[in-house]
Design a protein that fits this description.
mainly alpha; 67% helix; 6% strand; globular
Length: 158
């Protein structure tokens, strides 16, 4: 970590004054650390949502989930399949090297959910998947460099 110092010119400057008349400004790494923590918090929040609020009802065949999938004509096979995909995405959001791929995959799942909401249910809850796409897109973009490590980790040579 490094520090940036600047001469104190007024009493309104930010930072901590040292004995020699300089101010130690907030370092770029501290700002980056806060951004990484906020992004990680968003990943955890979305992972919890997908695991417990979305996948779990499907995987335990909660009556509300079963009713929706029967109405769509997908039955229990479709319900369990979507539940497994959402749970896998939730777990992968928490693994740094997989988080970008998971966010893209869950985003694609949300596009399908949006289309299903529009075509089958008349757009009743169509805003929910669209709202979820925004933080997923942020995670996918912010963690894109981590995904670049995937080919090396699985042994793919370029």
């Amino acid at each position: 970590m490094y520090e940036i110092t600047a001469p104190v010119t007024s009493g309104t400057g930010t930072g901590t004054a040292t004995g020699n008349g300089t101010v130690i400004a907030e370092s770029a790494t501290a700002r980056g650390r806060r951004a990484r923590l906020a992004l990680r918090g968003l990943q955890v929040l979305l992972a919890l949502f997908y695991a417990f609020a979305s996948a779990l009802p499907k995987l335990i065949a909660h009556p509300s989930a079963a009713e929706v999938f029967n109405e769509m004509g997908w039955g229990s096979a479709g319900m369990y399949s979507i539940g497994v995909l959402e749970l896998a995405g939730a777990v992968a959001l928490l693994i740094p090297v997989l988080s970008s791929v998971a966010a893209v995959s869950l985003g694609a799942l949300m596009v399908g959910a949006f289309i299903t909401q529009i075509t089958v249910f008349g757009g009743e809850n169509a805003a929910t998947p669209l709202i979820l796409i925004l933080p997923l897109a942020l995670i996918a973009w912010a963690r894109r460099r981590d995904a670049a490590e995937l080919p090396r980790l699985v042994g793919v040579r370029s």
